[in-house]
Fold each of these.
Amino acid sequence: MHTELFQAMAQCIIDGDAEAAEKLANQAIELGIDPLEAINQGFVIGVNHVGDEFSCGNAFLPELVMAGEAMKIAVSTLEPEMARRGTQRQVFGKVVLATIHGDIHDIGKTLVGTMLSAAGFKVYDLGVDVPVTKIIEKAREVEADIVAVSALLTTTMVRQRDVVEALDDMGLRPRIKVMVGGAPVTSEWVKEIGADGYSEDAIGAVQVAKQLVGA
Ligand code: B1M
């Protein structure tokens, strides 16, 4: 029924046009369209497309970042209407995300957070240079399903192991899964430290997170 509008929504995400995303989201509200329908039949189609293009090397980081930002604006514009109507977007799970202590690289971590939010996870992004204790504390507070730890330096990557061990020591695993990532992280490293999942990029992180929560 609103095919053209939904197509425009997908397209504005593909174009990374946050302004258009906000405008179209408001238009959907004015037309009385269910916000969830607008997200799933419009905006999500666009972000999935960009993700697929990125995975096969046809799109690059700036496109991914811009699509993620536009998606965030669309969702946040529609959220109050969802709350008003009492419709709840499916939430796959809660993720506590951080760049580990000693490391201030945040571009990749933030991108992972944006993509996880866009895909339907509730993300608590603690920022950069976050001590292990603070990550665990937050995970307990919000009853996280996943703790996601980014590290870009070989010297800080070792602290991902501390997160796994701390959760083990506190008996919080296997309920809370640990996902790690960052340029120096490899699947061998993941096995060595006993983490539950790893991804090379933000799109992969969404797939891994979904697997970890059984979605
Ligand atoms: Co730094 N730095 N840096 N740096 N920096 C690297 C990482 C480095 C590889 C550069 C190099 O030497 N070639 C090198 C690390 C060497 C090593 O340890 N092996 C390095 C170094 C040495 C340093 C300093 C020590 C330099 C110095 O001061 N002497 C210093 C450390 C500061 C600190 O953290 N304590 C430092 C500082 C900085 C800046 C502040 C200048 C800046 C960061 C700005 C910021 O983040 N706000 C910076 C940058 C920009 C880089 C490079 C050039 C780019 C990183 C980036 O943003 N990439 C980087 C070289 C490189 O990686 N090519 C480098 C883009 C981003 C989208 O990718 O972060 O890899 P990435 O994230 C990807 C994936 O890794 C994955 O998905 C993301 C999206 O696809 N991913 C996850 C990331 N986290 C994930 C989590 C997941 C799953 C997937 O689940 C939890």
Amino acid sequence: MMKCDVITLFPEIIRPVLAQSMLKRAGEKGLLDVRVHNLRDFTEDKHRTADDHPYGGGAGMVLKPEPIFRAVDAVRSQGEPVRLILTSPQGRLFTQPLAFEFSRETRRIVFICGRYEGVDERVREGLDLEEVSIGDYVLTGGELPALVMMDAAVRWVPGVLGDPESANEDSFSGALLDYPHYTRPATFRGLNIPDVLTSGNHEAIRDWRRKQALLNTLKKRPDLLNHPGRAEENRKPLKDLGKERGGKLS
Ligand code: ADE
């Protein structure tokens, strides 16, 4: 069971995504519990102001600290321990190991969605939070990143995917990209599926898939093969594959 809170100026970006497909099913099965909080509900002026101009001048608006602290206090006052995440392009990169870690987190994961030009720095200074980025590009806000992180994490919660092996076999779990998949029809616009997949020889199929995953990775993301901590385990299969293919690996 993964428990999350999303603090956002745009709850309507979050809610419809939670109401579809796997995230919806995870919610219905009691494996994902997400509470969405509108940051405006934690403002105190009559205009419900959540942002303001930056001190020192310059373009854009900055999210005010008070509503964010109040929203976090409100979540904390529910009594459960929390893990605070600020979505930000300045954060540590979100990758599969962190997705897995989130799926095993027993505290509520509270996503504070940044917006506009930034968040008042005292949010970082005054709250014990972790800053996480979903990639080296700048989005207009942290709502999509919060959804991306919940989606990537919930796949690892036991019972969310029909087949518990699915999460394991996919790209990146073994730091390799996935092997190619085919479904019916066996011939489509003159394109056939590989014979081995209909051979009934499970060992041969496993072998073929392992090699294809390696080739796929070599072709599309060779950087993954040299990942520290992975380079060693990839060395032998790569060498074998090279020998088998007469030195041709692409
Ligand atoms: N907010 C804006 N850009 C972001 C990114 N790349 N990751 C997380 N939060 C963000």
